Amino acid sequence: MLRLTALIRSAGSRLTNSNGIAPNNNTLRSMSDAVTTKKEIIEEISKNHDLTVAESGRILNTVLDTIVESVCDDKPVRLSKFGTFERFQSEGRNGRNPNTGAPLYIPPKKRIRFKPYSSFKGMANND
Fold first, then answer.
1. CA–CA distance from 106 to each of 54, 72, 89, 99 (Å)?
2. What residues does each domain of the chain span?
3. Is residue 120 a contact partner of residue 82, using CB atoms and an 8 Å limit?
4. Cβ pair 26, 20 in contact under 8 A
């Protein structure tokens, strides 16, 4: 269960510059305006269901951790009207080093795929 929480916390470390100092508030504010954050989702759950922010956070963390654990155990996660998360094995292939142009072999690896359902695609395409 802690895997996703650790991933989300580690993503916050990317918000620091090379000196380990967080950028000014204007940078962070403009980034948060462009995306919906986990914090905003938690606040929305809290507001819509008369829960505390802490309770809403625990619920969201449980949902996300369950999705991550299931996918990591090779069990697809299907959420109606949303989509499917699944893990798959990519095939090895030949590629090129972008810096030198030298050919190289890219080994197979496990990857994650999200396939949105048609209802989700339809809503996304009807702006």
1. 43, 22, 13, 15
2. 1-73, 77-127
3. yes
4. no
| Single pTM value for the model | 0.64
The answer to whether the CB of 96 falls within 8 A of the CB of 102 is yes
What ranges make up the beta strands (E) of 2-109?
Answer: 77-79, 83-89, 93-96, 103-106
Q: Write out the DSSP string of 80-121.
A: TTTEEEEEEEPPPEEEE-TTT--EEEE---EEEEEEE-HHHH
What pLDDT, in 10s, does the model give residues 51-73?
A: 999 999 999 999 999 999 999 99
* Other residues' Cβ atoms within 10 Å of the Cβ of residue 66: 13
User: Which amino acid type is present at position 112?
Assistant: I
Q: Which fold has domain 77-127?
A: HU Protein; Chain A (4.10.520)
Residue with tokens 């654990």: 69
